[in-house]
Specification:
By secondary structure, the chain is an alpha/beta fold. The chain has two domains: 120 residues, Response regulator (Rossmann fold, 3-Layer(aba) Sandwich); 143 residues, Response regulator (Rossmann fold, 3-Layer(aba) Sandwich), CATH 3.40.50. It has eleven helices and twelve strands. The strands form two sheets. It has a six-stranded parallel β-sheet with strand order 2-1-3-4-5-11, sandwiched between helices. α4 links the parallel β3 and β4. α5 packs parallel to α6 and α7 crosses α8. The radius of gyration is 25 Å and the shape is elongated.
Length: 320
């Protein structure tokens, strides 16, 4: 009898063992039929190109066919971006990443996509939007860090101006607040002008006007790559290497102006990281895995003299 019990027990144990599937042995999800897209605010700068390319490559590496990956360029046109996302919804895309031109212009269409079961990952916080996940870049903190470098270079005294962009973006509003809060800490510093522009050429013209109206201006902060570049180019054309200029984004064109002596400090956001993180959040969703509501991306401030290092770290190549 004992022998029979032992045999039965062994058989039961073998049966239970055969039924147990290890947690680590999850069945791989087939992504070959999935359709994904990324809607970029624009692809006319290093950030837009590298971010979207990193997104696309991550999707290809995961097994999504090239023909099922869409990259669109809104070219700084909020209406174009709205139309692009509407088209993605109508075309049955499973997931969309969005780097917005204007937060509030795309808020409702993002919510529409989510309501229809399409995952949306934003590469910046969009107030009022329901999203699957958000890639956070620490916009306030990185801007405050750059502003602190500018204040230090000005010996914490003098007149400064702000160049912001014309579209409504939460991330640039955060950068603007960081600039204002940092300057407010130093009683001998004064914000004398705040102007808006969107393209590098517009920013250059605006900066030239600011310099003409304020010949004793000590510094300029730009909330975005285009306006920071325009300000530095205006300073270079005017021979004003005494100006302290900096801001957010470390495009190669900005780093070249830093090498020339016209940019004091800039914050790098590592666009490849943003694209990869957005893609990975979507891939987690498509595989049925847990998706965090927010993922925090790295950033770093570089100062004059570190432009070669910045080019290698951010863009993976020497500065031309």
């Amino acid at each position: 009898m004992k022998g029979k019990k032992l045999i039965v027990g062994l058989l039961l144990a073998a049966l239970v063992s055969a039924m147990v599937v290890p947690v680590s042995a999850e069945e791989e999800v087939d992504l070959s039929e999935k359709k994904v897209a990324i809607s970029m605010h624009f692809r006319t700068d290093d950030y837009g190109v590298i971010c979207s390319e990193a997104f696309e490559q991550t999707m290809l590496d995961a097994g999504i066919p090239e023909e099922n990956i869409l990259v669109t360029d809104s070219n700084s046109d909020a209406a174009q971006q709205l139309n692009d996302i509407e088209s993605m919804i109508a075309s049955g895309y499973d997931a969309i990443a969005v780097s917005p031109v204007d937060d509030q212009a795309v808020k409702d269409v993002i919510n529409k996509a989510m309501d229809q079961g399409i995952a949306v990952v934003t590469i910046t916080y969009v107030p009022g939007a329901k999203v699957t996940s958000n890639i956070a870049a620490g916009n306030y903190d990185l801007s405050a860090a750059v502003c602190e470098k500018l204040c230090e270079a000005m010996d914490y005294k003098g007149k400064v101006a702000l160049l912001d962009i014309t579209t409504n973006l939460w991330r640039t509003n955060q950068r603007l607040m960081a600039f204002q809060d940092t300057i407010a800490q130093y009683p001998d510093m004064e914000i004398v002008d705040t102007q808006l522009a969107i393209s590098p050429d517009e920013a250059k013209t605006v900066a030239e006007n600011i310099l003409q109206a304020n010949p004793d201006l000590g510094g300029i902060f730009g909330t975005f790559s285009n306006v920071q570049y325009g300000a530095a180019q205006a300073a270079k054309d005017a021979g004003r290497d005494d100006l302290v200029i900096g801001g957010v984004d470390a495009d190669t064109s900005i780093l070249q102006l830093m090498r020339d002596g016209y940019v004091t400090a800039c914050a790098a956001q590592f666009p490849d990281t943003h694209g990869i993180m957005a893609a990975e959040a979507i891939l987690h969703y498509l595989r049925g895995e847990e998706v965090e509501p927010e993922y925090t991306a790295k950033w770093k401030v570089f100062v004059a003299g570190e432009e070669e290092q910045a080019s290698e770290e951010v863009w993976g190549k020497p500065l031309e």
